[in-house]
Amino acid sequence: MEPEKLDIALLGFGEAAGAFVSGWNTISNLSISAFDIKTDSHEKGEADGKWAAYEQANVSGCSTMEEALKNADVVFSLVTADRAYFAAEQAAKYLQKKTFFLDCNSCAPGTKKRSSKIISDIGVRYVDVAVMAPVYPKLHRTPLLISGEFMAEAKTVFECLQMDANIMEGGVGTSSSVKMIRSIMMKGLEALFSECVLAGRRAGVDEKVIASLEQTYPGFGFADKSAYMFERMMEHGERRAAEMKEVVLTVAELGLPADMAEATVKWQQRIGELGKPAGENEYGARADALLEALGDIERNE
Q: In sequence order, what are the residues at sequence separation of 6 or more whose Cβ sits closer than 8 angstroms to the Cβ of residue 298?
């Protein structure tokens, strides 16, 4: 099923937005606009890079949020977790009634509920969307969970866009609860791998440690998993740290201690801030690059 015509606005044009747009390129009758705050960046090359990304993706880049939203039937909010509520607050000034506001950000249920109130109060249809896997390689077919009052109507929109959205019965915050609580494990594993493998590498026993783990859990592929975990943190650690702060809020909202989530924030932030490229797909090379960078920090402190 293809839409007769659908005006889509993207708030934030990072990895997820780029992946969705790439997947939609076989669908006709889409008009896609995008706004990203990095177009206002004063960091060298950042704004130019974002305009180039718009052009490469064949979307209409906009200088202001108002310009991006003025004709939108559907808005995908794909900003960083720490900007999600602010994005909803600002978008509420420009959205038209009956527009779908699809909040795809990795936020605590409480944050989604606050955003929902702002959006719903002006007659816009807010949907809690949880992106349940990395957007590569599946692009627009990455599994999604959707919840909230308008989830059934939104399901039709997702089907028009050939997206894999599954309804999660419940109000706003239900989908996000699944995403956030799952992240304790998924992003926490990345932090555990980092601490374990970096310590093993510095002690000169990493191969023995990995072999021992593989013996305990045959077929898990600890060496390959280590390389992958390092890559995710090196490329996206700062964004993932922001998401994990929302996980901390989620656990706190449930009245539980969030010790593991808080520790994961620290490791994700630490690795992300190093700014080291992932380089070759081998855990030892990535571990060495990280240890060298961490050593430089220690020597300078």
A: none
**d(C-alpha 99, C-alpha 69), whole Å:** 10
List Cα–Cα distances, 159 to 51, 137, 153, 172, 281, in angstroms. Answer: 29, 19, 10, 20, 36
Report how far residue 259's alpha carbon sits from residue 283's, in angstroms, rounded to the nearest whole number. Answer: 27
Q: Return the pLDDT at 301.
A: 61
Domain ranges of the chain: 6-172, 175-300
CATH topology of domain 6-172: Rossmann fold (3.40.50)
pTM for the model stands at 0.89
| CA 46/CA 239 separation, integer angstroms | 17
Sheet holding 144-147, edge to edge: 60-61, 30-35, 6-11, 74-77, 100-103, 125-131, 144-147, 165-167
What H or E segment, with its residue span, contains residue 232?
A: helix 222-253
Q: Would you call 202 exposed, middle or buried from its count of C-beta atoms within 10 A (0-12, 13-18, 19+)?
A: middle
pLDDT number for residue 45: 86
Query: What is the per-residue pLDDT for 3?
Result: 60
Q: Which residues of the chain register pLDDT less than 50?
A: none
Q: Is 8 left (phi over 0), alpha (psi -120 to 50) or beta?
A: beta
Please give the CATH number for the structural domain made up of 175-300: 1.10.1040.10
The residue with tokens 């997820």 is 16
